[in-house]
Write a structure and sequence with these properties.
The protein has about 80 residues and is α/β, with parallel strands linked by helices. The protein contains two helices and six strands; from the N terminus they run ββββαβαβ. It is about 20% helix and about 40% strand.
Length: about 80
């Protein structure tokens, strides 16, 4: 599968330019207000969950999923 992501550019009418691909890839904060069938959260550590900002980002990510979600924790 190829990844689809925001290029940082916009069309003349203000629409975001997205690369072609099968899977959407972006930051948690860019997904705020959007929904997707499945969300996979990467790069979290169990120790990082004590940070309020990290917990907020995790909440945003998990509430974007309409079917399911997975969290892949890193060691440390």
């Amino acid at each position: 599968h190829s990844l689809r992501r925001f290029t940082g550019e916009y069309t003349a009418d203000g629409e975001q330019v997205i690369t072609p691909g099968d899977l959407a890839y972006d930051t948690v904060w860019r997904y705020k207000g959007q929904q997707h069938p499945y969300v996979i959260v990467l790069g979290l550590s169990a120790a990082g969950l004590s940070d309020r900002k990290v917990r907020r980002a995790l909440y945003i990510a998990l509430t974007r999923a309409t079917v399911g979600a997975s969290i892949v924790l890193r060691r440390g």
